[in-house]
Amino acid sequence: RHALGLGLGAAAACYLPWNGVARAAARADAPPLPVPPLIEPDGNGVVKLRLGKGRHAFRVGSEAASAGVNGSYLGPLLRLENGARVTLAVENALGEETTMHWHGLFVPSRLDGGPHNIIKPGETWSPEVTIDQPPSFNWFHPHMHGDTARQAHMGLAGLIVVTDGKDGERGLPQSYGIDDLPLVLQDRRVIEGEDVYAPDLMDLIHGFRGDILIVNGVEGPVAAVPKGIVRLRLLNGANARNFHLRLSDGRPLHVFASDGGFVAAPGPVSRLTVAPGERYECLVDFSGGSAVDLLTLADDEETGEELHVMRFVPDAGLPVAVTAIPARLEDPGMPDPSLSIRRRSFVFDERLAANMALMKAPSGQMESGHGMAGMHSGHDMGSMEMEGMHDMDHSMHQGRSAGDAGAPVAALASGVRMAMAGEPFDMNHIDVEAKLGSFEIWELQTQEMAHPFHIHGASFRILTKNGEPPVPHEAGWKDVALINGRAELLIRFDREADRDHPFMFHCHILEHEDVGMMAQFVTV
Ligand code: C2O
Ligand code: CU
Ligand code: CU
Questions:
Q1: What is the pTM of this model?
Q2: Cα–Cα distance for residue pair 269/282, rounded to 1 Å
Q3: Nearest ligand 1 atom, CA 513
Q4: What average pLDDT does this structure show over 361-365?
């Protein structure tokens, strides 16, 4: 298997996604941080979400076709009380099929909004859900098989906060938009001044990465914050980019919660990696009054180059509610791994994409069905892929104009297939049956690159990553984990999944998901 490897790391090194417009510093005319509207269920317990298309300016001078929820890009933040019964009325005014998945909400699979819950154009899908989980920061986005990447990139995503009303007692900031700020981290690709989602073969292999970074839909915003403790709710809503965050003056991010709620040991972190789909909540101390920039490493190649994400500017006019970092929050406890009733293993399989790239290579450079003997040098393989992709690259861009919202990945990907459970995703094949209420240990293995693993309707604890226990901020309940090498997860299957609407598990690099790096399970 390894001999057939793609050499993705090396290929990535020769591939230059940057158009030279990424920024290392705040710009003088930086826009204020947009704060998503906060909405709560109406008197009848209904939340209305209208999906529609529009246009949106990600940066000055670059407007693009976009889509949004109750607006033209991204959507509101829904605040839902634990225990509430809520109708999520999703109106599809997009003019195309979609689905809406509640990423991180624990609901039965028929309400989960996966690829089997298609909402036709003009229809409204109204699942009635009961909120039954600890306080946590979650989100929602479409999940059309083969078209999730494009629809999410257009802007169809919003936020969900599950609350138990006790954050005041806990000493946590809770004034939305003032000391409690959601930050949706994404990237865009700008070609000739226009935002374009037009992935080529290499983008399908690596995941589509943009060349400008946006927060809540705009490049490099500035947030005015009170001169006290501020809560940041971080969501990586990018299709493929990992964010490796740091504050420019070295002050720590005090991470106290991740995907599934509070972590066991909240603590200061100087560099925080957030993978696609992953959430972290952290506290930052702005009492000193000085402005600070949020930075990320430029890419995953560890060149050390940093890019500007956004800026925080303390404002003495804003009310300070919290002046100290709470020493301790609820400990989520740790289930005993010996509760696990079985082990399974899965490989993030890029092999079929590799075959595609090799098929495209000039003849004589490969022998089908045989290993790549004598071609173990990553550089050869990388350049071969580059040559191999030219035809595809041209044909895929034909007839597309800048600003075009693009075509479904599935339509571009003829021949590119990846797999999560042995074979590329098949809507009609159940890959796993798990016992409802049970624990299992899943061993996950990557081959050529890191992949963010995500599972619906279940949550997990990381037992090991490459043989080591997880770092404290990765040690709580999670639904996404970045896997690079080998990891063991202890998974709790606690929501029911039927055969007509199985739950998904997949890579959260959305292009990988769309080309088949996804599988499905039911509970029995
Ligand atoms: Cu956020 Cu299956 O996805
Ligand atoms: Cu999900
Ligand atoms: Cu992946």
A1: 0.89
A2: 9
A3: 2
A4: 39
